[in-house]
Design goal:
- The chain has about 260 residues and is α+β, with helices and mostly antiparallel strands.
- The chain contains 10 helices and 8 strands.
- The strands form 3 sheets. Strands 1-3-2 form a 3-stranded antiparallel beta sheet, covered by helices on one side. A 3-stranded antiparallel beta sheet has the order 4-6-7.
- The longest helix has 20 residues.
- It starts with a strand and ends in a 13-residue tail after the last helix.
Length: about 260
């Protein structure tokens, strides 16, 4: 098609493991079913000999993790715009019965053209879809903190419970908190210590670390970070609408990067 693409391949160590192959194929099928400007698009996937591959949209720019390393604390409106677009992407997945299950800054791509795209559905949970029922038992036994991000666990994941759209809402709330304060929600000397803090400890209100955060935005962030999933926004779309009400400029971020 004469276009630049990214190609994701399964590591040699995993391509002979049926479970990893099944997960890789599920990721390709999952993303290819999601068509949205804020989700990295899949153009093709398949197998050649023993090599499994996914052909993806190429996003020229950087990811949010690297961007935060160079900026530390983002402008409030910039953080809201990024969070809003990711929430919209999650809402699209949630409507299709898909939970990302491991949202972290590395999965949020920031394009030179101002685009914001969510990627890496490698351990997504698929529910309410009969096409994936044969994979559910395997998925349910392997989800959780061991496959998620150590720095970005969600209370129910740490407790071994099933992921829901509210799981992604918590994870994005965690990222919003870091974008606006320059520090993770909780930190510790081990993954277990961090996970326990997410389960039991109350977050420091972000406005105490950044007085520029308006009260309405802080309320949205703290609702995302409720320990009980039912007290959060129910899905990405609900969170996106809440962020729209606290934004004081148009939700567009042209040429966010100069890299």
């Amino acid at each position: 098609m004469n276009r630049t693409v990214a190609i994701k391949v399964l590591r040699d160590a995993y391509r002979t493991d049926p479970k990893f192959v099944r997960r890789f194929v599920l990721e390709a099928r999952t993303i290819s079913s999601l068509q949205h400007p804020n989700i990295v698009q899949v153009y093709d996937f398949g197998q050649t000999q023993d090599n499994y591959y996914i052909v993806l949209e190429f996003v020229e720019g950087t990811d949010l993790c690297r961007y935060l390393c160079s900026r530390r604390v983002l402008d409030v409106n910039q953080a809201v715009i990024i969070a809003h677009d990711v929430a919209v992407a999650l809402g699209t997945a949630h409507r299709r019965g898909i939970v990302h299950n491991a949202v972290k800054p590395q999965d949020i791509l920031l394009g030179r053209d101002g685009s914001i795209k969510l990627t890496d559905f490698g351990i997504a949970m698929v529910f309410n879809d009969t096409n994936f029922k044969d994979l559910e038992p395997e998925w349910r036994s392997t989800t959780g903190i061991t496959l998620g991000s150590i720095q970005y666990p969600v209370p129910e994941q740490a407790l071994g419970e099933i992921a829901t759209p509210a799981t992604d809402v918590y994870a994005l709330g965690n990222i919003i908190y870091e974008m606006l304060t320059g520090r993770p929600l909780f930190d510790g000397d081990s993954p277990i210590e961090i996970a326990l803090k997410h389960i039991h400890e109350t977050p420091i209100p972000p406005s105490q670390l950044n007085p520029n955060i308006p009260p309405a935005l802080e309320e949205v962030i703290l609702r995302c970070l409720e320990k009980v999933p039912e007290r959060r926004f129910r899905d990405g779309s609900s969170l996106a609408r809440a962020l729209e009400t606290v934004s004081y400029t148009h939700l567009t971020l042209p040429t966010i990067l100069r890299v």
